[in-house]
Amino acid sequence: MTDTALDAPVVKARNLSKRFGKFRALKGVSFDIPLGRIVGVIGANGAGKTTLLNAVLGLSSYEGELSVLGLDPSRQRSALMKDTCFISDIATLPKWMKVVEVLDYVGAVHPKFNREKAMTFLSRTKIPQDRKIRALSKGMIVQLHLAIVMSIDAKLLVLDEPTLGLDIIFRKQFYQSLLEEYFDENRTVIITTHQVEEIEHILTDVIFIKDGDVLLNADMEELKEQFIEVLVTPGKEKEAMALEPISKGSTFGKSTFVYKNTDRKALAKLGETRRLGLADIFVASMTGEGQ
Amino acid sequence: MKTFSALVKREVLDGKNGYILVPVILTGITLILVVLSSLGLGNIIYFDDMRGAGIANLADAMNQLVEQEPKEMPAGMTLMYWVTTGLAWVAFPFVIFFSLLGSLYEERRDRSILFWKSMPVADWQEVLAKFFTPVIMAPASFLAVAIAAQLFTALFLSLVMILQGGPVSELWPLGLMITSWFAFIAHYLLWLLWALPLLAWLLFVSSFAARMPFLWAILAPLVLIAVEALFLSTHLFGNWIGLHFGEWQNGAYSQLSHDIDGPRDVLNAVLGGAQWEGLTYSLSNAQFWFGLVVAVGFIFGAIEMRKKAI
Fold first, then answer.
1. What is the residue extent of each domain of chain A?
2. Mean pLDDT of B114-137
3. How many angstroms away from the CA of B117 is the closest CA of chain A?
4. For residue B107, which residues of chain A lie inside 8 Å, CB to CB?
């Protein structure tokens, strides 16, 4: 992990901004994404996630500095796409094409597409190859798109809500095959999704976005170390308050306090401690005091 | 080059109804009519006077024709074969028109643009392929169908003549037929260059229209024409469109003989260096060049719109 961090970052943004008229969708954000990471971009609707990813993919213009795999996405999209894949929104595959025609097309225009690999992935599905995309179910279309993307030897994969509207079994399979059959230390994956709990276990890094700002860009392990929830033993509430929790609540009649960057040994004396889930960390960060 | 041909192949697949099915079906209908009427001639179909002239079937009619107008036969047959493939060409302008209007519009509407943009293909390649396919591949397909139909008609008539005892070699003016195919290509290419600003306008409309590209393509020029007529009382813009649509031919071919009597004169007029005259006329015409500049502008605009589109 540490030696890949020494390499040039896959994505490097400095003061990246995007305006739509008067609305500032991105307010000068700066961050690096190194090689070999699975980064979750987490934020509410309209926070700027898709705007950010569109800039990274060369799909929209922007102000500020942005380099992806050493290229300027706004000018060099087609060169960038040799090493970058993305699934933006489900169901973008052309509905009028047959499955086999899509494979033919990708094979003809993409130098890093491995057709045998795609056929292997597809053989595990029930997707009929002589059918038109229009005739496939939503789940099959996503399976097909993922099979194509995983058969391209790319360095960066960007997934913007890739499983929206799919049922839970498809979603689980989707992330499982991504992790087991695609991801390695030479690739970087960026994911946005609303179903944070489902991707939590595969992420190595997270970026929190709120109102066009990057609130947090952290290593997942470190982040989880920082946030501790304590199920405070009755009678110790005063001591607990003295350690300045960032939020408090109660479950089953017991008080729960959430701490950030507080000495674990001190917390352990207050009661039972546990790590927070990513969704809770996100909420804690968004409420303001978490920063 | 491999990428470009893959793009063109994709476009042909996308538009195969218009490019392939339409000419095949329409030409098929004409061929059926040709077959039925040739078999029925003299039995079911007959004209006044035919019996008196001793015509009982198609072979009799052909024999008489060969006897009376031997010099007109090759040109006459060549023209006749073109007539049997004429119906399909009626649909051709519509195919070009709607293909261009949908080219950069449909991919935005059905969101497939996000998939195309995830491939290492530059926007200018996409736009050029989407322009190239309707204006070059569509007529190529229509012409291929027409040629096949002409050969089929000749073959079928030969069979009828053999069975009924009529002339066969007169049905095969192959040299003239091939010349007419090339003359068609030459004339089409010249027409294409003149019409390029109008066609590129359709491409440009398809690149920016958020909805109803059809209305944009038609209404915008109509409004301009109306505004010009209302405020300036001139018709420059409308005339300019007319010129590029086909009026230029009046100037280009004004030298052609108007003394036409029979199919030979028609073919002589069309094949006898008319393309050359049309080309030299066009190359020395300022409007021709201005139109090309406008076309390049629209294509450039379409590429810029494609870059921004998601």
1. 2-211, 223-286
2. 96
3. 8
4. 94
